[in-house]
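Re: the request from the purification team.
They wanted to know what the chain is likely to look like in 3D before they choose a buffer screen. I agreed to run a prediction and write the result into the notebook, where they can find it.
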Amino acid sequence: MRPRRRQQRLVRAVVYVLVLLVIIGMILTMVGSALAAAAVPTASAPGTASSSRPAPVVVLGTNNLTWADIQARAARHRAGDHADSDRVDSSAAHLLSFASANEPMNLSVRTPADRTCSADGWLTLGRGTRASALKPADSCAGPTTAVPDDTPLVRTLGNDVSIQTVGPETQLAMGAPGSPPSPSVSLAPSLPEALSAGADLTIVDTARDASTDTDRITALDDALRQAQEQASPGTRIVIASLADDEDPGPQMAVLPAGTASARGTSSGFVVGTSTHRPGLAQLTDLTPTLTTALAGRSAPAFDGQALDLPASSTLTPAKGAAAPDDARISQLADDALHARASQRTVIP
């Protein structure tokens, strides 16, 4: 009997071992499957992060440009009076074509002074509140306030948002390049070089070498064409005239098609969130608009209220487009004219 019992115990032991091995094999298979499944999102993380990152924004700043200024030059182009030596007319026509395909607006650039110099406009953009970069008695050519290490705009964007700037006065809005606590800001010598860096936000002073409407229109259009051709797909382009020292009053601005407001639309215009008026925004609105578009947040210190930019732009550049006869732009030009007339009756 004993040999038989030993044999039975041996058989049971072998069965137990086999069952144990099967269980261990099943456990290892389950663990391996779980690890493989976990590895898939890890491997695709770079693509996922890229697709969820907001589309870049390019801000093309200028000064002392109104819709009436641009319309006047575009009208010459439409009439066929555009000699090769006077390409400003075709530049104006292209600007109007771009504006018509997007969201044209008037921009109130009022600051503490009765006129806004270019430096005042850039400083206001960086602070999100009305600010003066020059003393009231100084001309716009006078010395400006020192360039800050950083600005409320940059602090609210955070270090995860990379920034390229072009033009010395843009530093009033973005702070000194590479200065702590905002090492994400870099100064590029030209727009093409800034765009090649692939930054989240690119801000350009297109009027840095311009002194007349002709110069400003041509320089702005050159920058717009470069941005349309060289920026990454989906880039959202914002145009804004930030100063009105030559003739105080509403300036021209263009926001991307699909820009929305908490106050909706009226008569084909986006209603300004802070102004409550169709087609009219304030310069201080641009600051929270940029931080909301790129970082998803604003700051209590900002005076303005954000407009909501689209997640990305789907427009393609229109080559050789003629200036459209857009009733919205004519209405904006009339509104700005009436605002100037009203302002002159108030300010001696």
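For the purification team: Strands lie at 57-62, 103-108, 163-166, 185-187, 201-205, 236-241, 251-255, 265-266, 269-270, 280-282.
Please add any questions underneath this entry.
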